[in-house]
Design goal:
Two copies of one chain form a homodimer. With about 375 residues, the first copy, chain A, is of the alpha/beta class. Chain A has 14 helices and twelve strands. In chain A, about 40% of the residues lie in helices and about 15% in strands. Chain A has a six-stranded parallel beta sheet with strand order 2-1-3-4-5-11, covered by helices on one side. The longest helix of chain A is centred in the C-terminal third of the chain and has 17 residues. Chain A starts with 10 loop residues before the first helix and ends in a 6-residue tail after the last helix.
Chain lengths: ~375, ~375
DNA sequence: TCATGGTGTGACAACGCTGTCCCGGTTACC
DNA sequence: GGTAACCGGGACAGCGTTGTCACACCATGA
């Protein structure tokens, strides 16, 4: 049997060099306490000298654990997923687990994945990123014989991690209300294939806050546009601006759209925030660049939390198999939201903050005013 | 030996059900031709009925191949890396290989990685992303007993994939020259930890093009700034604008900086491109957003090429172990470059430009001098 | 009829590790 | 001083595959 390149040193090699048995080397490598200090030292040195690394395949063959956590994602070219994975990686590594990624960009690959379930014997847990899975697909994952954690989606009866979109949208809307806005538009994101954008929840939070404040909802103020489509975005803006009673503020479900709105408005010489406030959601990298006020969620925290949840589920079979981790959002006031300009009156030369904000306006929103630099 | 959950059916289970030996099942699963059609059919059905999947651990234990390609990256939260991995994934999957990611965000993890080399026995090849590895670290990877492909860096004597930065920068500079610019500044990117930005090559291409065109190089026109640091970027802009003979165009080594330059310039009421052309490099997502003229490189192509190179090296031990794949760049003209405005005429009133500094003040030392904030 | 060769299949020994059992040597306790 | 409990360490049998070898079978040609 010539193949199987014998390049790598094995347990036996280390054992021989250290003058002990393979069992002892194994015990040492695994950090079991039943090894005397001097033997341990000898073994560790031998291992170091030989650059010995335990073979995961052999090890997992007997333990039944692969030492791998798999991730299913539609793409890696995404701010959210990238950040989440970047923080997930170290969490797993700290636990001695490796991160395996299944990138499933199109429908064909997706079908194939759920058909063959290649993760089946090759991972200890699976993290599913932002797919809007059909119930059938989820069911398929259920008989995968391993914990499956859903990220950024509310998977009933299954472990999942996501931010409180309702509360976030409510807080954002309150911020605008607090500044004095009453005509507040909401721009939904549509057509992002493969993604769940919590659209429903964010819209819900927006409506809740309006209703709390006694502002009547107006469906004309709710429009939708795909992200990255300048023309459609411009159309949406046009629609809003040409209403009989146009909004003084726009709350976009996603930063990418919000930034695009700002761009479009400014191009049309509608000053932001003087004539139109714009609020985003996510705290995308771009938001800081564009000085966009936004509701931040932390993909890094989500990734970390998901990793820890997965570790729990792997290590404790008795763990709650339907745990939902709901993370908070927070308002980051920047330069695209401000009080509305008094509609009837001529505008003052450089009015800073006219009317006092509503009582519940968070202190932080004031700080937003002086972020000009 | 109670653990090792016997959830999954094994070769033997399938063999029993099909009434053949395990060897035959193995042969069938691997598609070897020495199996008669009827036996093959029986085995395949049995396997299907049991949802049988070959255990990679067991298989690789004997074949010596892991079926895994590992990637080393400083972060996944990067436009370039994200895109590259997104296209790499499907390439590998098509070849039946899985993608394992080592995220090494900080120095501690990095040291640990090169110390322990956890990839050692757990992958068939390693792709290294944009680390500026020390020669010592590269040497460490050399005795990893597997092909190592370097991405976006010129690794001497080792397989690598990158774009032709020199040619790209030359083309970009020629574009500006072609528009009529003669005073062309170059903004380098500094201090991006863990990344190689091909700084040297791009600067070289810029200089080559200038020299071709008979334009004397002027070191005052070459400045540097870290990405994402608004203050330092503004300083760099100030330095350039206050030169006795300021540039009419700026070529930034990276789109992120270029976008920041445009932002800064416009804030200072310097019209882009009317009064200053700005050219980027990379074709970052942001570039399209900002309508930035840029030199595009395609991380997707790079990822794909790297994947295919890795496959070659895995499958053919005789393959050229020092192959360099050099990919082309291409100019994408957008809205931030234009012919220079005739210099002699008066400029409009609104322009607000600081007074020139003392004539002999070296540019960079000034930038370092003022430390507000 | 007997060698010859091909073809499909089964037996079996690895692969490198871990879990269990076992044993010799201490230490602790009456 | 005897016995029990403990503790460090070795032997060994798997884990689920694959590669090799051997073998039974059939067809072919002398």
């Amino acid at each position: 049997m010539p193949p199987a390149q014998r390049h790598h040193p094995t347990l036996a090699d280390v054992a021989q060099r250290a003058g002990v048995s393979a069992s002892t080397v194994s015990r040492t490598m695994r950090g079991l306490t039943t090894v005397s200090p001097d033997v341990r030292a000898r073994v560790e040195q031998a291992a170091r000298e030989l650059h010995f690394v335990v073979s995961r395949q052999a090890s997992s063959l007997v333990t039944g654990r692969t030492g791998v956590v798999a991730v299913l994602a539609p793409t890696l070219n995404s701010w959210f997923i990238g950040s989440a994975l970047s923080s997930l990686g170290p969490v797993l590594r700290a636990a001695g687990l490796d991160l395996l990624v299944y990138v499933i960009p199109d429908l064909a690959e997706r079908t194939d994945f759920f058909d063959r379930l290649p993760a089946r014997r090759n991972a200890d847990a699976l993290l599913v990123f932002s797919f809007d899975l059909s119930e059938e697909e989820s069911a398929r994952l259920d008989d995968l014989q391993m914990p499956v954690v859903y990220i950024s989606q509310h998977a009933k009866g299954r472990p999942s991690v996501y931010v409180d979109d309702v509360a976030g949208a409510r807080a954002g809307t309150r911020h605008l209300l607090g500044l004095g806005h009453r005509r507040i538009a909401f721009v939904q994101t549509t057509g992002a294939s493969g993604f769940t954008f919590s659209s429903h929840e964010r819209l819900l939070g927006y409506r809740q806050a309006l209703s709390e404040a006694g502002v009547a909802p107006d469906d004309d103020l709710v429009v939708a546009t795909p992200p990255g489509d300048k023309r459609r975005t411009a159309e949406a803006v046009g629609t809003l601006l040409s209403l009989r009673e146009p909004p003084t503020a726009i709350f976009a479900e996603q930063d990418e759209v919000a930034v695009s709105l700002v761009w479009t408005l400014r191009k049309a010489h509608v000053d932001v925030p003087a004539r139109m406030s714009v609020l985003g959601f996510d705290d995308h990298q771009m938001a800081e660049w564009s000085d966009l006020t936004t509701i931040a969620q932390s993909p890094a925290d989500i990734g970390r939390a998901a990793g820890e949840l997965a570790l729990d589920l792997i290590n404790d079979p008795e763990a709650d198999r339907a745990r939902h981790l709901v993370l908070p959002t927070r308002l980051i006031p920047r330069a695209t939201t401000a009080p509305p300009r008094p509609a009837a009156r001529d505008r003052p030369a450089e009015a800073a903050e006219p009317a006092g904000p509503a009582p519940d306006a968070p202190a932080r929103s004031r700080a937003g005013a002086d972020t000009y630099e």
